[in-house]
C-alpha cells in the first residue's frame, strides 16, 4: 500500500513559487516608453455610418485625430485606430463615398461622437435602435438619412432606392435640378416607387432579381423622363462645352454595368459634385469645372460572396422552328421563336431566370413537343449563361452553353510593372486581370453551319487593336472574333472591349476618356476565313450577309436621342451572332448578323 505524501514534502517547491510571485508582484513595468495599444478592429461597431461626398478631408472624433493633419506645416500624424479606418491618412471620397462605420470605442461615455470634419463641427448621438447614415456634402454640410438593414424578402433579390440630396443650384446652367426617375438602359422606368423623387426626398425600396444592370437616372418630365437631362454617374462628368455654352443637352451619357448581389441593399444617391471641364476651346482663361448634380451607387448592405445563385436564359437560332426550353423539367421562359426573324439586327432575348448552383438538365423541344436536344450544365455561383440552340452541319439541333462575363474584364498575356515585361508563367493571374468599368463588351459566335469559319470585321478590316490604359496589351484579341467555327467558344478572352467612358478626371481612376470611340466600328461584316496552315484572314467577304450597323444595333432606344450628334454605341454586355442559312435561306431564314444585349 502506497503511503500518501504530506504537504510538508512540497515545502521547497512552495517556497520557490512564493518567491517568484513576490518578485512578480513587486516589480513594476516601465510603461512610459511603450505605445498605448488601441483596438483597431470593428468587433463593436456603432450605428453611425459616414459617407464623404466632398473632397479628401480630415476627421477628428472626440479629440482623437483619425487622419494625418497638417498643423503649422508639420504632419501631426494619425492614430492606430485612425489608420485602420483611413490607411491613406485622409478620408477620401471616391466613387462609393468612402464609407466608414464609427467604432464604439470612439464614443464618449454618453454614447456621443464630437466630429470635426474639415470646417464642420458637430455632435452625433449613437442611436442604436434607429441607425442612420450621415453624408458629408460638397458644401460642407452634413445630411442625415435613415438606414435600412432589412434584407430582401426573396434571397435571390436585391433592394434599391433613390435618395435625392441634389442641390437646387442658383443659375445652374445645366439645369439638372428637381425630381429624378430611375430607368433601365433603354429608358424604361424601373418602378413607380423610384420615379419622380423630389429634392430632399427618399424613395421606397424596390426589390429586383439580382444581376447585371445598367441603370440610368433622368430628371423627371411629367409622367416620364426628360431625355435631355440625364445625370452622370460620378466620377464621370456632365456635358458642357464652353465654346457653345448655350447648348448643353445631357444625353448619350454612358453609364457602367454593375452587378447587384443577391441579398444586397443599395442606394442611388444624388448630390452636388464638381465636374471638370475637358475642352480645346480657345476662349482664354476657362474655369476648371462646374458644379452639377450627379449620382453615386452606394452599398448599404453587402451580403458577402454569393455562394448559391446563377442565371440562365435561352435563344433559339434554329430557322423555322419555335422552341421550348426546360431546365430540370421546368420551363425556361415561354415559347422561343427563331431569333433571326426579328426585323433589323437588334434582337431582344428572353429574360434571365435564376437557378441554384449545381448540375442542371437542359432540354429543347419543338412546337410539337418533339425532343430536339438535351444536355447537362454545371452551374457555379454568379455564372451567367446564354443557352443557344442551332443546327450543326449535319442539320442536327445542338445546344451551346455560352458563358457571359458581365464585368468588363480581360486577362492579359503579359503585364508591365515599371516597364518590365513579365510573361505569363501560369502561377498567378491576378496581376493580369484588368477591368474596364465603362466598356462596350461583345462576344462573337458563329451559328451558321454553312460558314466553316467566320471572321467578324470592322467593315473591311480587322477590329483595330488598342492598348489598355493599365496594361500594355491588346483589349481585342483575335481569339474572340477570328476563325470562329460553328458553335465554337473561345476558352479565354472571349470578348472584345471598347473602353468608352465619358470624360473623367485622371484622379478618378476611370481610364482613357473618350479616346476609344475613335476605334469603334461603324459596320460589322462577316468574312469566310481559314485557319492555319492555309490561313486566310479575314478571307473573302460573304456579300449575301448584310453588314450590321453598329450605331443602330448597339443603341438601346433611339428615342433617348433628340440630337443626332449625341447618339453613339452604348456601353453594355453584348453578343453578335451569325445565324440562319446561306443555302435554303428563304422564308426569312437567310443568314444574318444579330445583336443581343445581356444586361438591362
Number of helices: 3
Helicity level:
under 10%
Q: Structural class, please?
A: mainly beta
Overall radius of gyration: 30 Å
Low-confidence sequence ranges: 1-42, 504-514
Question: Residue-averaged pLDDT, rounded?
Answer: 85
Beta-strand residue fraction: 35-45%
By DSSP, the count of extended strands is 39
Give descriptors for this structure.
disordered N terminus; 4% helix; 600 residues
Give a brief outline of the structure.
The protein is mainly beta and 600 residues long. It is 4% helix and 36% strand.
Describe the structure.
The chain is mainly beta. Helix content is 4%, strand content 36%. The chain is globular, with a radius of gyration of 30 Å. The strands form 12 sheets. Strands 6-1-9-10 form a 4-stranded mixed sheet, with no helix packed on it. A 4-stranded antiparallel sheet has the order 3-2-7-8, with no helix packed on it. The model is unreliable at 1-42 and 504-514 (pLDDT under 50). It is built from 3 helices and 39 strands. It starts with 10 loop residues before the first helix and ends with a strand. Strand 9 and strand 10 form a beta hairpin. The longest helix is centred in the first third of the chain and has 16 residues, at 11-26.
Amino acid at each position: 500500500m502506497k503511503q500518501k505524501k504530506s504537504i510538508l514534502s512540497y515545502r521547497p517547491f512552495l517556497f520557490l513559487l512564493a518567491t517568484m510571485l513576490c518578485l512578480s508582484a513587486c516589480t513594476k513595468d516601465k510603461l512610459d516608453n511603450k505605445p498605448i495599444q488601441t483596438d483597431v478592429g470593428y468587433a463593436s461597431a456603432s450605428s453611425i455610418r459616414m459617407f464623404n461626398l466632398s473632397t479628401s478631408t480630415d476627421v477628428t472624433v472626440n479629440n482623437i485625430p483619425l487622419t494625418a493633419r497638417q498643423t503649422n506645416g508639420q504632419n501631426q500624424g494619425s492614430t492606430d485606430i485612425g489608420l485602420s479606418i483611413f490607411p491613406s491618412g485622409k478620408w477620401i471620397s471616391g466613387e462609393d463615398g468612402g464609407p466608414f462605420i464609427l467604432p464604439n470605442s470612439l464614443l464618449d461615455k454618453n454614447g456621443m461622437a464630437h466630429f470635426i470634419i474639415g470646417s464642420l463641427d458637430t455632435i452625433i448621438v449613437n442611436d442604436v435602435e434607429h441607425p442612420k447614415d450621415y453624408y458629408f456634402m460638397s458644401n460642407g454640410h452634413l445630411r442625415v438619412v435613415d438606414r435600412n438593414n432589412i434584407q430582401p424578402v426573396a434571397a435571390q433579390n436585391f433592394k434599391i432606392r433613390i435618395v435625392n440630396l441634389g442641390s437646387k443650384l442658383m443659375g445652374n446652367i445645366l439645369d439638372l435640378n428637381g425630381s429624378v426617375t430611375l430607368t433601365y438602359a433603354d429608358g424604361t422606368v424601373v418602378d413607380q416607387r423610384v420615379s419622380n423623387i423630389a429634392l430632399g426626398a427618399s424613395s421606397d425600396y424596390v426589390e429586383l432579381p439580382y444581376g447585371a444592370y445598367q441603370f440610368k437616372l433622368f430628371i423627371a418630365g411629367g409622367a416620364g423622363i426628360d431625355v435631355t437631362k440625364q445625370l452622370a454617374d460620378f466620377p464621370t462628368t456632365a456635358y458642357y462645352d464652353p465654346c457653345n455654352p448655350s447648348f448643353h443637352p445631357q444625353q448619350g451619357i454612358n453609364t457602367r454595368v454593375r452587378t447587384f448581389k443577391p441579398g444586397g441593399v443599395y442606394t442611388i444617391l444624388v448630390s452636388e459634385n464638381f465636374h471638370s471641364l475637358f475642352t480645346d476651346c480657345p476662349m482664354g482663361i476657362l474655369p476648371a469645372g462646374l458644379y452639377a448634380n450627379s449620382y453615386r451607387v452606394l452599398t448599404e448592405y453587402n451580403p458577402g460572396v454569393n455562394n448559391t445563385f446563377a442565371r440562365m436564359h435561352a435563344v433559339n437560332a434554329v430557322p423555322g422552328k419555335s422552341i421550348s426550353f426546360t431546365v430540370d423539367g421546368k420551363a425556361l421562359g415561354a415559347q422561343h421563336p427563331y431569333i433571326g426573324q426579328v426585323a433589323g439586327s437588334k434582337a431582344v432575348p428572353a429574360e434571365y431566370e435564376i437557378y441554384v448552383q449545381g448540375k442542371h438538365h437542359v432540354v429543347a423541344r419543338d412546337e410539337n413537343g418533339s425532343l430536339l436536344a438535351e444536355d447537362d450544365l454545371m452551374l457555379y455561383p454568379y455564372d451567367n449563361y446564354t443557352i443557344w440552340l442551332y443546327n450543326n452541319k449535319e442539320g442536327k439541333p445542338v445546344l451551346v452553353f455560352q458563358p457571359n462575363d458581365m464585368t468588363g474584364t480581360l486577362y492579359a498575356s503579359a503585364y508591365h510593372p515599371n516597364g518590365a515585361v513579365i510573361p505569363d508563367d501560369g502561377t498567378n493571374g491576378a496581376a493580369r486581370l484588368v477591368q474596364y468599368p465603362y466598356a462596350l463588351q461583345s462576344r462573337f459566335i458563329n451559328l451558321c453551319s454553312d460558314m466553316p469559319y467566320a471572321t467578324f470585321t470592322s467593315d473591311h478590316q480587322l477590329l483595330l487593336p488598342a492598348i489598355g490604359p493599365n496594361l500594355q496589351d491588346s483589349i481585342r484579341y483575335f481569339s474572340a472574333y477570328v476563325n470562329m467555327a460553328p458553335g465554337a467558344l473561345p476558352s479565354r478572352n472571349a470578348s472584345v472591349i471598347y473602353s468608352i467612358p465619358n470624360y473623367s478626371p485622371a484622379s478618378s481612376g476611370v481610364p482613357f476618356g473618350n479616346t476609344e470611340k475613335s476605334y469603334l466600328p461603324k459596320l460589322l461584316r462577316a468574312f469566310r476565313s481559314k485557319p492555319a496552315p492555309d490561313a486566310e484572314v479575314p478571307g473573302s467577304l460573304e456579300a449575301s450577309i448584310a453588314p450590321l450597323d453598329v450605331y443602330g444595333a448597339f443603341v438601346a432606344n433611339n428615342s433617348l436621342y433628340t440630337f443626332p450628334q449625341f447618339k453613339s454605341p452604348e456601353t453594355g454586355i453584348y453578343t453578335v451572332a451569325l445565324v440562319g442559312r446561306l443555302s435554303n435561306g428563304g422564308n426569312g431564314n437567310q443568314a444574318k448578323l444579330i445583336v443581343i444585349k445581356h444586361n438591362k
